[in-house]
Every structure is written in structure tokens, then in C-alpha cells.
Here is the input.
Amino acid sequence: MRQLTTTAGNPIGDNQNSLTAGERGPILMQDYQLIEKLAHQNRERVPERVVHAKGSGAYGTLKITHDISAYTKADIFSKVGKETPLLVRFSTVAGERGAADAERDVRGFAIKFYTKEGNWDLVGNNTPVFFVADPYKFPDFIHTQKRDPRTNLRSNTAMWDFWSLMPESLHQTTILFSDRGLPKSFRHINGYGSHTYSFINKDNERFWVKFHFKTQQGIKTMTNEEAQIIIGQDRESSQRDLFDAIEDKNFPKWNMKIQIMTESEAKDYKYNPFDLTKVWSHKDFPLIDVGILELNKNPNNYFNEIEQSAFSPSNTVPGIGLSPDKMLQARAFSYPDAHRYRIGTHYEMLPVNRPINEVANYYADGSMNFSDIEEKSAVNYEPNSFDGPQENHLYNEPSLEIFGEADRFDRTLNNDHYTQPRELFNLMNKEQKNQLFKNIAASMSGVPSYIIQRQLALYEKVSAEYANGVKAALNV
Here is the structure.
């Protein structure tokens, strides 16, 4: 057996599980190999985004229609009727910048809210879950979605080899190969924050929160055959649809909703509420209406405003924070690190990324630094005696109680990866199930039989009907 090592040749003992403070606790910065993996991945492509390379975007507003101030002190939600300007970037995940819009893939749904308290970025997808729950596996997963290093072709074998060895991917792959895995356009998808975030109210109480954006245009999808015809005619079908709709003043809208969970409820919930491969039951935590998101202005320059737009879950505002979600915590590092590499050190000085409120910090020099002369001549260290910007402890979040010992916890132990995919499968009608079977079979073309059999064994654990349907579509 060849020993897996770091780039410095140090042997690695566990390449599957991040080092966390307790089984459900946050990741520790001392997990240097996790940071090395993520930082290395961010530098594997030049200059397009490593993931979500093909994107479209537009400006709009969020108008608050319901009072949720009991849960958060964030100014964006401070009163009914308040409107906040925003930018949304839609994208596909796996394809390069030249990929076709009408491909079966997860769709990115990233929002930058320009609030009076700074930019709030909500980086999500059109699915409420993801393929993996630990950032240790994220670079590995993305490698399976990109081109094979030998053939330079997309590899069905790599995808299904990885998925068949990762039961936690069952929930997301069931969505991906369902009818919703191939949307008709960006206007006809839902958006989800996917991760668990935190709300903090004026009394300094913390709540856990999930974000949902329900399309007012309705969910519309395509079959593989319909998509192939569209790709042959227009590789920018979703970009064209979004741009033309806004130009025609047919402004797309989404209803913003949230789910709320208390800290005490989170301790006893039947699933880890910070597991990105799981959803919260709408019965246990009903959707709460918040407002309406509308897109009503196309960018004037695609490169300046969409290609150079940069989103990160680390961009939070008072009243909105992170959670012990392992993937969220890693993305809070990985996203801005990718932007610094791809665009430049001071990427947030670009007009599309710059907040509408005053920016005051001690960052100095580096690429893309085009601040004005007064800012450049200001003191660049802290503490100082020259009236430089200072911290304010009023913005500190309440302490978060941590349980357990620091270790690399095996997330496959005592973790139910089958119930939620089963519940999702059982919600599908006969036509949707048949489409799911057909789509999975088509994507398994050329995949070795032993990998297919391993994946079928996972489907058996979800549902005999699920497994038998895929077998029939494969003629197994």
C-alpha cells in the first residue's frame, strides 16, 4: 500500500474526516491538511472559477413582507416594506465557462445583498442538500466532476465510483437525476441557502436558520432528449432566457422563506442539523414567510459585473452568522481564498463587490489595491494613536457551547443516509420515478459493472422499488 502524504511528504492518518471540536462541533484551524487541500484546489484552474465557472446574473431587490425581528437584529429584516438592493449569480457547477447551459447539473444560486451594515452573501444552490458533508471530501468530489487526467474527458466511471463509495451522496444524486436535475431555465428553479446559518436577535439570543427562495414562475424542467435539442441550437439558453425576460420587463420573482430551530431543539433533533446532506422536516420546522426577491436590471458589462463578482459565506452582517456546519465553515475560508487567487488580493474593492457603507480596515498593498490616496496614507496598523478604526464589542456574537473532544469523527458511523432519500423518492409520482431510473441508467454508460452493482446495493437500502427500477432501466 502506498502511504498517502502531504506535499511535504508527511504521512496522513485520516483523509476522510475533518478535525472537529466534538462530533457535531466546528472545525479546528489546526487541521492544516484540510486547509492545504482546499487552498491547493483553489489554485488548480486559471483563471476561471474552479466550480460554478459558467454563470449568468442580474440585479434586483429584496422587499420584506413579514416581520422576523424576533429572530434577528439584521438591518435588512428590520421592518416590513424595507427594500435592499442585490445581485444574483446563477451558474452550473461542473462545466467550464464554455459548457452548455442545458446540461444536467446542480444550479448555483448566489446572492449578494448590499445592506447598510455591509455586504451579506448567501451562497447556495437550487438543491437544499449537497453531495458530501465534510470539506475533506470536497476537492475529491470536484475532481470526479471535471476532466479525467489521462483522457481529458468527463468520466462517468469517476463520478459513480465516488458516489457508490459515499452513501451520504444518495440524497443529492436522487435530486440530480430526477426531473429537477435539468431545469428549463434559471427563472424556473428554487434557491436554497442549503447550509444551516445562525440568526441573533436584539436580546443576543441565537437561532439556527435555513433559507429558501421559492420561484413564482413555477418549477419547469426538461428531459435529456429535450435538452439535447436545445444544446444543439443554443448553448446559452438559460443566459438568453434570463436576459431577455428582464429586458422585456418580465421580472422574475422568488418568495423568500426561512426555517427556524432553537439551540435546544438542535441538541435533540433526530438528525445532525448541521449536516449538509440532510434537510429539516417542514412538519417539524414550518416555512416562515419573509419577503419577495425580484430581478429587474441586467448588467451593463458581463465581465466587470458578473465574471468579477465574488461571493463568500464569510460575508455576514450583525444578526446573521455561521454555524458548526463543517462545509459552511470550510467555504468561509475557501471562497475568499479562491477570489484572492482568481481576481486579486483586494477583489472586494471592485465596484460589483464593494459594500455601499464605509470600508475601514488595515489591509495593505497587494494586487488590485486601488483605494484613494487618503486611504493609502492612513495608518496601517492597530492599535494606534492616530484615530484609526477600532473594534466594537457590541458586534460580538454570543458564545457557542462546544461538546466533546477534538478528534476526526467518522461521519459514516451512526448516520442514516437512507431515510431522507427514501422519503424524497416516495414523494415522486410514477412518471418522475421512471425519469429518475432512465436518467441514472443513461449516466452509467461505460461504468464498470462492479461499480454499478455497488451503487445498486445502496439503492436497495433506500428502497427495493428504487433499486429494481434502475436495474430495469439498465437491463441488469
